[in-house]
Amino acid sequence: MWFVSHRGEVVCLDAEGFHDSEDDGPIRGEWDRLFNDKVKQPNRLEELLDTLKRGRLTNWLRWEFDRADMPLPSNAMVVSVEDGKRWKITAQVRGARRRFELRLDGTKLEAYKAVTPAAKEEADVVWRFDLRKELKVFPFKNVHANANQTCSPAAYRDRIYVVTGNGTEQKSPKIPAPDAPSLVCFDKLTGKVLWTDSSPGENILEGQFSSPLVVEIDGRAQVIVGQGDGWVRSFDALTGKLIWKFDINRKESKWRLDSGDRGTRNSILATPVFCKGRVYIGGGQVLEHGEGPGRLVCIDPRRTGDISSELAVDANRRALPHRRYQAVLRKQGEKVIPNPNSGLIWEYSGVDQNENGKLEFEEGFHCTISSVVIKDDLLVAVDVSGLVSCFHARTGERHWVYDVFCSVNGSPLIVDDRVYVPDEDGDVAIFRFSSDPDVAMKKVDGEYRPLAEISMDSSVDGSPVFANGVLYIPSGSTLWAIAKSKAKPAPVGASVPHPITKEAKPCDCSHRPALLPSGFKWRRP
Q1: To bridge 435 with a disulfide, which of 95, 150, 172, 399 should be the other Cys (CB 3.0-4.6 Å)?
Q2: How far is 306 from 431, CA to CA, in rounded Å?
Q3: By three-state DSSP, how is residue 362 classified?
Q4: How many CA atoms lie within 13 A of 201 on its CB side?
Q5: 188-214: b or e for each residue (b if 16 or more CB lie within 10 Å)?
Q6: What separation, in Å, do the N-terminal and C-terminal C-alpha atoms of the chain show?
Q7: What is the reported pTM?
Q8: CB atoms within 10 A of CB 95
Q9: Per-residue pLDDT tens for 504-520?
Q10: 61-78 pLDDT, tens digit each
Q11: Domains of the chain
Q12: Is the CB of residue 396 less than 8 Å from the CB of residue 410?
């Protein structure tokens, strides 16, 4: 399995770990630090050195190993490697022979364990690639928590594709490494770099957050990714050659230039979604920039070249080079014209449905960092302003909208005939999958409400996942698994335990298993 770590490393692991009793790949014999401690008392340091010299361990040192979940027996063998500085320890731990090393630098004592097939608790690393060291990538690191800070790799045949996160400094618009790759293709078995792309270059707005999508279209595999300059680009999966590009922003939109200016230009944090020959994606910004206008688009990925809906030209209708903050400056005589090669099928940024001459809050589409979900030509999209919208995937017509009254950062999920939407308040709203609002929701005092809203223990910023009969939801502090239940739904009004507090209270139907796929109920793992 492959993932991108918070250290800016692409890591390949053996999914069986060391439970197959093998150390796979070229990376072998690593040392993993168990603990580090300062030996402040002179008498304790003297005792430590004297005891180690005699090939034994002090009681407090064994206690430190116990705390690290590596209890050493009293007959552990201690051998000096570098007098007064390094020692090797060999001992039987839980039925396996394990090797450890102690390192003393002044008063700083560190303990390491050898990562071998005996270390069943450790990951078996096949290969590791440091993006910062090897490719000089400078990942944008937000001062606030950002769930989209590293990408999820995508795979095709014997290759994987990784968005590097290259971007600006934390509190500055400066891009330290504009020529560093934004997208990398690796040989997934060896970690060898096969090709790279750095298209956003000096136009990165802040960082690279989107995860790549790989799909075969007309016999050709495309890697489609939202990049840090607000463009969606498609590359040939084998060669890295650019196939098409689409600007998610309108040409007159403007990126915020200071903390008090929200701006109208967006980056892309969502992952593209492919369905029935079309690509769907929306634009957004990192969370602390607040709410703002967004644009949800449906694109034809069979075109080539610049397939944006608009072109930026000067007063003589000559094409303008792309600018980082604003593509068209009206005061300089520049214009926006329709693109004859446009690949836009439909878009939604807002419709005056009540025809009152202005765009109401619920009539618009706001910044999003979430991917859409599609089934049976129905599309559900969410935005950071809290709107859950249902569209016709082929035409872009919006069927209904509901406001959850807080930010939605994760992506929705469809299971059976239900739609699950997590939010920042820690609730999971459940809708019936339908274009009819009277079917998708219920009415309470004349107003639409979700079929149920289930409260978790803390904010749910990640996306729920359904796999092998289990629904998984990551909250701020807990991973929740929703397992199949044979129990019958509790009758309305019955006293049932709350899934988190366990406190019995009258059932209001919000926790009834009938609202979960195939009779599921909430269970804490």
Answers
A1: 399
A2: 38
A3: helix
A4: 5
A5: beebeebbbbbbbbebbbbbbbbbbbb
A6: 23
A7: 0.84
A8: 6
A9: 433 333 333 334 444 44
A10: 999 999 999 999 988 999
A11: 31-114 (3.30.310)
A12: no
